[in-house]
Amino acid sequence: MSLKKIGIGIIGTGSIAGHHLKSVQELNNCKLIAMASSSKERAKAASKKFGVKTYASYQKLLEDKSVEVVIICTHSGNHLGPTLAAAKMGKHVLVEKPIEVSVKRADKMIAACKKAGVKLGVIFQNRFSPDYMRLKKAVRKGHLGKLILGNAYIKWFRDEAYYKSSSWKGTIKGDGGAALINQGVHTIDLLLDIMGDVKSVFGKVRTVKHKIEGEDLGLGLLTFRNGALGTIEGSTAITPGYPARLEIYGTKGSVILEGGKIISWDIEDQTTKDNFSNEVSKTGFADPMAINHALHKAQISDFIKAVKKNKKPQVDGKEGRRSLALIQGIYKSSRKRKEIQLM
Ligand SMILES: NC(=O)c1ccc[n+]([C@@H]2O[C@H](COP(=O)([O-])OP(=O)(O)OC[C@H]3O[C@@H](n4cnc5c(N)ncnc54)[C@H](O)[C@@H]3O)[C@@H](O)[C@H]2O)c1
């Protein structure tokens, strides 16, 4: 593989942008060229905060020829515009989760990147957690037998101050909803990655605690295409907030992850009990910024390798779209008060 470092531009200078910045600065297959903010004043402030060159608009950043890949860290309802503009300029795009706030908008991003011949990746950093990868490998090797049940529980807490911290949070236009699409989406993505596509969903969502447009409590009853069943419980109204839980049950065994760590590993025919730590990692269940950047770094590295080798990144646009389509299915089912067929 070429030793050339790929030039990176980061669009958006809010909370998550700092994780991307640190990751890019630590990786040796890429180098940071600049960031982009939405005004001269914000660019000045960001440049001071992060100590890097910051353009006053993403259009200016896209004109920079040394930028080959952009990482989009604007709010969720503003991923489409920068993606279309970047694709037009021939830049590869790595976008924060969720891919966008509607499947229609996500499809435009996927089509534009395909047409321009650039890669599109979606950040779902938990796919790169070592314990999750161990579970996935065991499932793919058939160690759990036929999958029969998969559950994702994301009973988190966010206070009013969180929803007031950025004007887009909890809004339909800016966030696409709330607890499921913003917080729950990570574990829902893992559930789909393990269990496969969902055939039909029955959903109920409510806003029970916060003064927001989106839901702070949402449930989904799933029938997977492979015949397995599943449930989703997502919230930002549960105090004090608990680590996200992913439960996978097959005919030959069961594995449970909590806070990204394996807490139960019960598989028939496996005589050696694997070592796993009971320590639950900090994953933002009560504090949105209590995540470190190690998994972001792993995913950015994977994306850069995909660009260099002209291969598919682990989470491309199509993969990133799956969790969004399911969550929109839950919202639709709740509105229509009936089960929704997704395929
Ligand atoms: N992967 C994770 O664990 C994780 C964690 C937090 C947030 N996120 C995602 O990252 C995205 C951003 O979230 P955040 O918490 O950093 O939000 P934030 O509100 O802190 O930051 C968003 C930034 O985008 C900037 N912006 C908006 N429009 C712009 C434009 N046209 N040009 C340039 N900049 C523009 C805003 O000025 C702001 O600085 C969201 O999609 C969110 O879902 C992911």
User: Domains counted in the coordinates: how many?
Assistant: 2
Helix amount: 25-40%
- Overall geometry comes to globular
**Approximately what portion of the residues adopt beta-strand conformation?**
15-25%
Total helical elements: 11
Alpha-carbon distance between the two ends? 40 Å
Q: Identify the bound ligands.
A: nicotinamide-adenine-dinucleotide
CATH superfamily of the largest domain: Dihydrodipicolinate Reductase, domain 2
Quick one: how many beta strands? 14
The string of secondary-structure elements, in order, is EHEHEHEHEHEHEHHHEEEEEEHHE
Walk me through what this model shows.
It is a single chain. With 343 residues, this protein is of the alpha/beta class. It has two domains: 6-125 and 294-315, Rossmann fold (3-Layer(aba) Sandwich); 126-290 and 323-341, Dihydrodipicolinate Reductase, domain 2, CATH 3.30.360. The protein has helices at residues 17-26, 40-50, 58-63, 80-88, 103-116, 130-140, 160-165, 172-175, 179-195, 294-309, 317-336; strands at 6-11, 30-36, 54-55, 69-72, 92-95, 120-122, 147-155, 198-206, 217-224, 229-235, 245-250, 253-258, 261-267, 340-341. Strands 13-12-11-7-10-9-8-14 form an eight-stranded mixed sheet. A hairpin with a 2-residue loop joins strand 11 (245-250) and strand 12. Helix 4 (80-88) runs parallel beside helix 5 (103-116) and helix 9 (179-195) packs across helix 11 (317-336). The longest helix has 20 residues, at 317-336. The relative contact order is 0.16. The chain binds nicotinamide-adenine-dinucleotide (NAD). The site of nicotinamide-adenine-dinucleotide has 24 residues, from loops.
